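User: I'm putting together notes for a lab meeting next week and I want to include a structural view of one of the chains we've been expressing. I don't have a solved structure, so I'd like a prediction I can at least talk through. The sequence is below, exactly as it appears in our construct file.
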Amino acid sequence: MSDDLKDNNVINDTDNPTETPELQRSCSRDQGLLTEFQVFVLDPNTSGSVAIPIALSPLFTEVAELSALTTPPSFLVIDEYTDRVWLNATIGWQAITNGTGVDRVEVLFSIYRDSLPPTGTLIFSTLDSGQADPEDNFVTTHLSHVDLNPFDVSPTCPIPPTGPCIRLVNYFLTAELPLAGSAANIIGPITFTGAEIERNRNCCFTLPPTVAP
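Assistant: Thanks for the context. Below is the predicted structure for the 213-residue chain, given as structure tokens.
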């Protein structure tokens, strides 16, 4: 590689005045760093290890949480306005036929920030379904979501923050049955994880000129 191309591949420290030269030089290797990880799992985390009935809407069943209420506490500490939280969950459940004639069971899974409903903020929901057939009624649901605004609605941390600010964030995973007459149980496994991820640094690169063939 020529010296000209080498020079054009370096980070331009003067193009982005919001970042220090040292930070700009390191940002190419500091993209999306995972800085905190919390997890909820059953013990043992296996199919059939629990039998938790899922409530009919508008009631709900709490499946798992990452919060200050667990032992040990499992809340996430958000210390930058631009932090994001990557949430993943895997839930094993069983659709049940109870003589009502319902042949397909739907389950609404939801993730709330800060607290359970009705005071918590709904940030994610999705429907999954399974056959209420004894021969094919086991379902494993996987959820994935990125909370882009964990600082949202914080009484102690204005947006944007006016100074150093730390926010303790709780997440709650719930399930409910939206169709009357349906029935289902959470049977395991249950895995619920939250990962705090730093923003991608806003680096400025000078790309090499296009070389004609």
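A couple of points you could mention at the meeting. The first strand starts at residue 34 and ends at 41. Residues 1-18 have pLDDT under 50 and may be disordered.

User: Perfect, that's what I needed.
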